[in-house]
Amino acid sequence: MAIIVGGPASNNIDSKLAEMLNIPCVKLEHKIFPDGESYIRFPETEKIMGNDVIIVQSLYSPQDKHIFELLLAIDAAKDFGAKNIIVVAPYLAYSRQDRRFLEGEPISVKTLLKLIKHSGAEYFITVDIHKEYSLEHFGRNAYNVTAMEEIAKHIRENIELRNAIVLAPDKGALSHAMKVAEVLGGIEYDYLEKKRDPITGEIKVKPKELPVKEREVIIVDDIISTGGTIALAAKSVREQGARKVIVGCTHALLVGNAREKLRKAKIDYIVATDTVPSEYSKVSVAPPIAKVLKNILKF
Amino acid sequence: MAIIVGGPASNNIDSKLAEMLNIPCVKLEHKIFPDGESYIRFPETEKIMGNDVIIVQSLYSPQDKHIFELLLAIDAAKDFGAKNIIVVAPYLAYSRQDRRFLEGEPISVKTLLKLIKHSGAEYFITVDIHKEYSLEHFGRNAYNVTAMEEIAKHIRENIELRNAIVLAPDKGALSHAMKVAEVLGGIEYDYLEKKRDPITGEIKVKPKELPVKEREVIIVDDIISTGGTIALAAKSVREQGARKVIVGCTHALLVGNAREKLRKAKIDYIVATDTVPSEYSKVSVAPPIAKVLKNILKF
Fold this sequence. Notes:
alpha/beta; Rossmann fold; globular
């Protein structure tokens, strides 16, 4: 038997998965002590013993707290006799520190994935990880699923598209644009080139000659953090005559004054997922995660 | 060779240890990204390769952030070729969740100590851990040092003691009282009994017949958290006629309105250590830690 365990940062993805897989779901009791320490508790340990335990905890801010709560839950689930522990971390913190950009740096995503593994997780699932190769630090049984299909379907159902084009704000996000374009019926897709001004240091989107005039432009990316990249891209295509600017992203972190930047960029529609709670969380990543879980659990 | 590496929460204990042991000290570069993720960096990795590396990071609030920074530092030090990694965590977070008080709880201090060990630490040193038996979760090479000698010496040097008595606010802290009494020349020591009122649920210090009248009463404990226990103890001995009330504790967490409670309790003098930064951090725990490090490093 398998059971879903929802952590304090599961953002209701736990319940959705339980419903899709038709298995039970328990929510960890949770509080924070006056000194700031986290407390979790499994409500029914007899449901853990001998079963496959799927722990759902998204690692958005405060990420270190959510990480430690996850590690507490894994360790305790092992103590209570869990068979296989499957960790579902829809948003994986520290995934952008995926290599040593400067000598002396840690590879933070490696440290984190190894902690999760060595705490006792046999399987790991995340969504639109910044760089897929980072999963090698977990070893076998690590899965990355994409939310781009769900995002594309949502856009198709909510926006009238006459002659749309999908753009990645940089080359690194091109695979996301490709996926969205495919779901939207094999429409055109491309990417914008970022360029740093050699004198001022300012980052500019250097528009290639993009055929965006009078078209709906769908800009897609994995993360909106401070909103700078997306705002710049939106501004650029708007100036080139786009009819509508639509933004789709998986993880809407929206740090600092991101909301203000997005508002000023006059984007017509923004859609993000529930990996990070925000006002743009309009689609759930539960369906693609459920698909992988079915395979793992041999349903 | 050995080197001290000071983490973002080393509170200058790193420099003091380096001076006492006459070994080099590097401080980790540190910043927090706009989204809340921690960044650390070793400034000189060539000093890590082949050497014993002593990482100093105290785990006070925000404890989960300080924990993850420590785990990043351990993992990176291993990558850079550290020989033995010795972790000095003067304040050990989660040390009060040392057993399952209710079924379904994690043993958080176990989880934390295992994470530190499995990340690559060969040795672990902390100060006045809440329960000494918790160190067994680290296994061999875990050391607990007491700050009570330093606290006693500080009190002796700063307060005129005519006829002092040392009191623990509960039986669990009696060993601390014993140690302080010993350093103060084998003076009298005892403990107060806490009792919960069976009707109101209020916790009261039930004074045994304590000979505190016209004497200096030194109340010692490992942690001042919300300040409730200490304030109650101070009030009780004051009511019984104590001439002066002096409080000595290792870890002054001072959460919530602890400062107000302490002020209202009219304590004459408070001394704490530098395991947690506070206005009461008047003595350093570096000397007893240095002693253990000398043994480990065979100086």
